[in-house]
Amino acid sequence: IVNTMSSGDTLSIIRVTSAPEVLTPFTGDRAALEAALQSAQPSRTSADWNAALTLAAAGAAGSADFSAVIISDGGLADAARLPAIPGRLQYIPVGRSDRNLAISGLATAALPGGPTQLFAQITNYGSADAEVIFDLRVDGELVSAERVAIPANDSLTRAQDLPDGFATVHAGLTLPSGSTDADLLADDNSAYTVSAGARTRRALVMTTGNRFLEQALRSLPDTQTLRGDTTRADATGVLPGTEIDLYIFDGWLPAQLPDGDMLILNPPADTDIFAVGPVSTDVLNPRVRRDDPRMAFIDFSTVNLLQFRTVTAGWAEALISVDGGPLLLAGEHEGRQIAILTFDLRDSDLPLQITWPLLLASLLDWFAPQSLIDAPDGLRVGDSIALRPGADADTVRITLPDGAQQTLDRAAVFADTAQPGLYRVEALADGAVMESTAFAVNLFDPDESRIRPANEITLGDTVVTQAAEAEIGQREFWPWLALLALLVLVIEWLLYHRRQRASVRFKPVARGEAR
Question: What was the pLDDT predicted at 78?
Answer without folding.
Answer: 63
